[in-house]
Amino acid sequence: YPSEFLMQKITEDNQIPVHLHVSVSLQYVAGLKGRALVEFFHSNIAEVENEELRHLMWSSVLFYKTPSVEVMSCVLLSTKAIYFLLDDSFVHADEHQSDFWNKENSDCENNSFHLSCCFVLKLNDLQSVNVGLFDQYFRITGHSADHIVTCLTRDSYNTHTFIQQLMAVLSLLARTPSPEPVDKDFYSEFGSKNTGKMENYELIHSSRVKFIYPNEEEIGDLAFLVAEKMDGLTNLPSFNILLYVLAFQVNHFEGSAQNTSSLQPKTLILTSSDLFLFDEDYISYPLPEFAKEPPKRDKYQLADGRRIRDLDRVLMGYQTYPQALTFVFDDVQNQDLMQNLTLDHFGE
């Protein structure tokens, strides 16, 4: 251990997404290759000697205790735990949650010393994994509010790869399997005989960890919610969602010393007639078992919505993934085309 193939794979995966900025400490980690990366894991992160590093992934993460702070993380999966190596700026991003983090080393202000927090979730504490719509993200749940983390991969391939690696590692854990139900037919396993309503598709791993996937009703509920936001929608049965993707909205700031832009996480939903941007709560739903009250905000909050018929043009950047798209709308509200055409249509 480790095999050459594994080291090559981990080296290839050790790349920070180009559109996200990270601290110097995480840039150092991203610069490590092959054996140096494995040695870094064993000497700085691993908690026991005989654990093996199996998978590495860069992803934005959200914590249940700080649902409004999305932070970049290097996610390391070993045979004992999942490690989230976090940007050191995260500790200071939400001061009222400071008790969530152990700040013993916060007095290290030396510029040559770069501190990273490492959040550890032991595999033995893992209870369930909720996969988001279209594999755009997944939520890992432990035994308390401190042990709930959502990885916003925004990439179905990365989500699928991590879930597969996690299942393989969980298979190594020595846990007694759950007793098998007496009658395992389709209706008893996936549905409620009382209501006839389909539950979310749930896979119970041999390690007793639940892997929960969304079913068709979740898309139906989302379509109904989107339809409520549309004015004058009459043909609800034919309404459907064509695209659901986690993206960023670019806010450009001019006038500063150098023009800067900030990325605001949004959920983009495309229907046959409209384009919507939602602020989605990726961490609070479905409610954990220990939750005493519902979350303070709804799962989906409408941020912007435009009619496709008002779409004038789409500008596409030529850079590689992630692609930048600019939607230009000609949405002069309730204006008849035969009205005054002398107005400065192409002005600000």
From TrEMBL:
One GO CC annotation: endosome membrane
Keyword Cytoplasm applies: yes
GO molecular function: kinesin binding
Organism: Cinclus mexicanus (American dipper)
Residues annotated as domain Nischarin C-terminal PH: 241-347
Keywords noted in UniProt: Cytoplasm
Domain PLEKHM2 PH: 114-178
BP-aspect Gene Ontology terms: Golgi organization; lysosome localization; regulation of protein localization
Name of the protein: NISCH protein
A Pfam family hit: PH_NISCH_C
